[in-house]
Amino acid sequence: MPLVLIGADQSLKLLNAPATEMFGSGMEGRHYFSVLRQPAILDAISRVYSSKERQEARYSAKDHAQETLYRVICAPVQNGSGLGVLVSLEDVTSFETAGQMRRDFVANVSHELRTPLTAILGFIETLRGPARNDVEARDRFLETMEREAERMNRLVDDLLSLSRVETEERVRPTQLQDLQDLVQAVCHSLRPLAESAGVEVVINAPLPEAQKRVQGDADQLMQVFTNLIENAIKYGSSGGRIEIDIVLVPRDPIMRAPGLQVDVRDFGAGIDSIHLHRLTERFYRADNHRSRDLGGTGLGLAIVKHIANRHRGRLKIASDLGKGSCFSIVLPISGP
């Protein structure tokens, strides 16, 4: 933790190593105004000299990559030469980020629920009033209400699933799973969806049986493949084909271990590169209107990312507009 001692003459007397790294060397003897330049911290130090009481402030340090936020404690220190001030800076960036994420999450959930609820309440009011005896309108409104209720139900299911995955994220699964068997089971369950969309699903898994196994949670891995393959069918159906490859990675550069990689590739419209780095954010949609129409909750890829983290693996996304997209899950096959 950076610590700065300011003397009775308001000059810097001592900086510990973290403070020296933050503000630079050779700062001793300089007036604190010339080193601690942010108004909030300068005002807090000034109040300590005038009130002789502990003060708090916020300090922001920015570089080209990120912003670091500090909680600053300015405490009076009495010594032989008079009243000094001890300034400590506690890095609270992670707490601030977590707090903002919670606020954003609540706001997003509220927004996602408000839209279907508003629609349902409006239809109920109409059915009780002008459309009370209109059979055609009643059937149309009830169908829409059912669709909106199903949307809310999917959202609640995904929220609960995300919560469970986050709770278990630090506990790595220990059972061995055959990835090809899991992928084939998911493809079988999604066959009606693929057929109705006119999409052919092809699985390529030329590996020996012993090399298709990883330590994993079968239910969660099936959830991953269901999400990726279902997305490929829904958003890449214009390509008419989905290819699923299971390949051996001798050494993944991020995991620093050998792994199995499952690629789910479609040949549809693709995704603009500006969206790729945000696709795993909660409630982020590259095509908001289309995603809602297709029943997406905006949480699927966030769940996939957390499941990959629990399995000590990772999610990779590549896409070219007009050529299709490839979503890959890489899972380690050995090591802790």
DSSP helix fraction: 40-55%
CATH uppermost class of the largest domain? Alpha Beta
Name the beta content range: 25-35%
Radius of gyration: 28 Å
Give average pLDDT, whole number: 85
Gross geometry: extended
Strand order, biggest sheet? 2-1-5-4-3
Report the sheet with the most strands, covering strand number, pairing sense and barrel closure: 5 strands, antiparallel
Uncertain ranges: none
- CATH homology-level superfamily of the largest domain: Histidine kinase-like ATPase, C-terminal domain
Number of strands: 12
- Tally of discrete structural domains: 3
Number of helices: 10
Q: What kind of oligomer do you see?
A: single chain
Structural class based on helices, strands and sheet pairing: alpha+beta
* CATH fold group of the largest domain: Heat Shock Protein 90
Could you please describe the fold and organization of this structure?
It is a single chain. With 336 residues, this protein is an alpha+beta fold. It has three domains: 3-91, PAS domain (Beta-Lactamase), CATH 3.30.450; 93-168, Signal transduction histidine kinase, dimerisation/phosphotransfer (DHp) domain (Helix Hairpins); 173-336, Histidine kinase-like ATPase, C-terminal domain (Heat Shock Protein 90, 2-Layer Sandwich), CATH 3.30.565. The chain is 44% helix and 26% strand. It has ten helices and twelve strands. It has a five-stranded antiparallel sheet, sandwiched between helices. It has a five-stranded mixed sheet with strand order 7-9-10-12-11. A hairpin with a 5-residue loop joins strand 1 and strand 2. Helix 3 runs antiparallel to helix 4 (135-168), helix 4 (135-168) packs parallel to helix 10 and helix 5 packs across helix 7. The protein is extended, with a radius of gyration of 28 Å. 27% of the residues are buried.
